[in-house]
Amino acid sequence: MELLVVVGVLAVLAAMLIPALANTQPDSRLFQCLNNERQIVLGWRMYADDNNDILAPNDYPYRTTIAWNPSNQQLKSWVAGTMLNLFDATAPLGSKVLVDARGSLLATYVRNAAVYKCPGDVLPAVSAGNFGSSKPFVRSYSMNSAVGTLWYSSSAFGGSGAPGSPVQGGWLPGASYNTSQTAYLTYGKMTSFTKPGPSSTYVIMDESSFTINDGSLITPAVRGTNGYLIDYPAAYHNAAAGIAFADGHALVHEWQDPRTYSSKPVSGSSPNNPDTDYLASITSAAR
Asked: CA of 204: how far to CAs of 51, 185, 257, 270, in Å?
């Protein structure tokens, strides 16, 4: 009788605990997403270690598909190609672009194309491009537009600034694109992360499939009631996104305002949005 009572009590406790434990089960897709982002940031840091502290380029022309040019005018970036082109955006060719060091300069350090894909990103690659495809995108992550160096935008291609100089951060002021902006810091070397610091400056983030194109994620550094959203973060993890920082750590951040992960994003002012303040705080800092 006592044994039956004990068994009965344990059964009741189990029935009470199972629903609670179900809510604490780890999200395997989120875990893999954060692990992917950590691997990319590790490769990004290894690239800088091998290149006199200079960070990989992050200024690929957002509408230009990859073309393997044997001359020294080959377009290069931390990751090459555009998600606005069917071949760059989907497998098998898009996967090959990600791991081909002729264009994607982190390919030497991140050799598995699957690392660039968030497992929570399951939408077909039709949302951001001018093509119809049932295939998914090969890439879900983009890099902070305040981080990286010039390649395509450099003087070698008719732009301004020497190759390897810091990106210009033209969208950091928010309202309009300005390659001459000097209000906010940009980061071309590991040693340049002085403000807000490497543990508080993001490098890689999930980007919405509606705005992803090149490898750069435009998040203005403007704070206050008149925040801006140009590119949009993703919300593949229950209204949250994975974010990896310059010091190598990664976290999941839950968005507070539905406008931040709208299914039909519109670039521009997003007033009284707490998420724009958060994004601004981890993007850059005033000079």
From this structure: 20, 17, 21, 22
**pTM confidence score:** 0.88
Q: Determine contact, residues 167/148, Cβ cutoff 8 Å.
A: yes
Strand positions, DSSP E, 115-214: 141-144, 202-206
How do strand 216-217 and strand 228-229 relate by DSSP bridges? unpaired
Give residue for tokens 């033209």. Answer: 170
Distance CA 208, CA 101 (A): 25
Specify the DSSP class assigned to residue 114.
Answer: G
Are 118 and 141 spatial neighbours (Cβ–Cβ below 8 Å)? Answer: yes
CA distance 213 to 125: 11
What is the CB-side half-sphere exposure of residue 268 using CA atoms within 13 A?
Answer: 3
Contacts of 30 (CB under 8 A, 6+ apart): 120, 237, 240, 242, 252
Q: How far apart are CA 34 and CA 206, in angstroms?
A: 10
Instruction: Tally the residues of the chain.
Output: 287
pLDDT digits (tens, 9 = 90+) for 151-195: 999 998 888 889 999 999 999 998 888 888 999 999 999 999 999
Instruction: Show Cβ contacts of residue 41 under 8 Å, excluding neighbours closer than 6 positions.
Output: 203, 204, 244, 245, 246, 248, 250
Collect all residues with Cβ–Cβ distance below 8 Å to 216 and sequence separation of at least 6.
58, 59, 60, 62, 142, 143, 144, 145, 148, 231
CA distances from 189 to 113, 119, 155, 184, 200 (A): 25, 30, 19, 16, 16
